[in-house]
Amino acid sequence: MGEWAHGIMGCFDDFGTCAIAFCVPCVTFGQNAEASGVVGSCFLGSILFFCPLVNLICWLKIRSAIREKHGIEGGCFGDFMSIMCCGICALVQEAQQCKVSPAGDMPRS
């Protein structure tokens, strides 16, 4: 099993993504939702970010889908703790991982 390309505190490895996630987290959430295949569009994912409890369930599914797609170890509890302890860092970590090509797929730019 693999690991995340960037650690949970690796926010500044990609300062642009970090700045966008900090200023408008709904955009990064929507992009991650679309890239992971959990939601069909970035716009819908961005809207879901503002729905309490629904956003948490979607976020857990997004992290799980990204982990599965990239062969990363982990589980629901670890994902939940990452989201609750540092949500912005988790968003950036997911976005950075989506940019990494799993098994020859085209990376998101």
Description:
The structure is a single chain. By secondary structure, this protein is an all-alpha fold. The chain contains six helices and no strands. Helix 2 crosses helix 3 (42-48) and helix 2 (25-36) packs across helix 4. The longest helix is centred in the middle third of the chain and has 17 residues, at 54-70. The protein is globular and about 30 Å long.
Short description:
By secondary structure, this protein is mainly alpha-helical. The chain has helices at residues 15-23, 25-36, 42-48, 54-70, 76-85, 87-98. The chain is globular and about 30 Å long.
Shape: globular
Fraction of helical residues: 55-70%
User: Which structural class matches the secondary elements?
Assistant: mainly alpha
Radius of gyration: 12 Å
Number of helices: 6
> How large a portion of the residues is in β-strands, by DSSP E?
under 5%
Number of E-type strands: 0
Mean pLDDT: 92
Q: Could you name the ranges where pLDDT drops below 50 across 5 or more consecutive residues?
A: none
Order of helices and strands: HHHHHH
CA(first)-CA(last) distance: 25 Å
Largest sheet: none
